[in-house]
Amino acid sequence: MALLEIKNLQLEFGTGPKPARAVDGLSLRLEAGKTLCLVGESGSGKSVTALSIAKLLPTPPARYVGGEIWLEGRDVLRMSPRELQGIRGGVVSYIFQEPGASLNPVFRIGAQIKESLQYHRPELAHDSEVIRLLRLVGIPAPEVRLKNYPHEMSGGMQQRVMIAMALASQPKLLVADEPTTALDVTIQAQIIELLRDLRQQLGMAILLITHNLGIVGDIADDVAVMYAGQIVETGRVNEVLSHPLHPYTRALIGSVPRLGNHASRLTAIPGAVPRIEAFPQGCRFHPRCPDVQPSCSLQAPELSTVGTFRQVRCPFSSTNPSTL
Question: What is the pLDDT, as a whole number, of residue 259?
Fold first, then answer.
């Protein structure tokens, strides 16, 4: 049984005759102890999907109009408020992309980590456990650092504090929403390495939300590419990166800079992700697609299974069986 399984999730914002559907028929599966990367540009619906796992989106304006979210064999969308309190932090914890905005500037970091312990593991809400958590995430001199305020730490150290807070409840699923976006390249690599090591040590699953395919190969087991509220491609990470099937996946990979690449400019994807109230008819990527066909604007493609572990939402994708 999967730790997390999302089935045909449909999520809307707004009321009236034409609410905006931000997530449209999304399905994902994540096994215990594995890492799944959800990749796509800003506005694709990645963060909304992540927040829906613990039903953190306020309703209204959000409305769950269809689908199921199964976490440890229980449907989150049918849980009572008390049951939801039990899984938030206890089963699934979150790391967000702006640690400086997530940490309270007027409390020392030790007190903020201890607050999480008091709620989930009150018997361990003392300095020694805070020190252990800080040491676990690679913060030097944790006995001193727990007395620091957030502004006294670098962005990378703040993100490590956020990871320590998320781990305080011993979650089975860690959702990392763009955890490296605000960090420089060197610190990004350190955070990705830390997450990979923590997964191996603690046996937890990770759902990593990112727009950067350049970091996916370093941590993921599987990858799902999202565009305009829909999954357009899924598969094992090595297969997707080495042989992308959907034009959007190929475009994302083409926009990643490479060592030794002497091209004067990176490959760019023309246009932008459409607003959720203005998704085009047919294939949602067709206005930006370099391989567009006349029928792409008329009929919405289904997510089709290709090979054993691959799915793609494009009837014109390259599907050479020898490469799958």
Answer: 65
Residue 213 carries which side chain, given as an amino acid letter?
A: L
**pLDDT at residue 323 tops 60:** no
Q: How far apart are CA 162 and CA 280, in angstroms?
A: 38
Q: Are residues 177 and 94 in contact, defined by beta-carbon separation less than 8 angstroms?
A: yes
Cis previous bond, 19, omega within 30: no
Cα 185 to Cα 189: distance, rounded to the nearest angstrom = 6
Is the distance from CB of 267 to CB of 255 less than 8 angstroms? yes
pTM of the complete model: 0.91
pLDDT in tens, 102-130: 899 999 999 999 999 998 899 999 999 99
Rounded to the nearest angstrom, the gap between the alpha carbon of residue 163 and the centroid of all alpha carbons in its chain is: 15
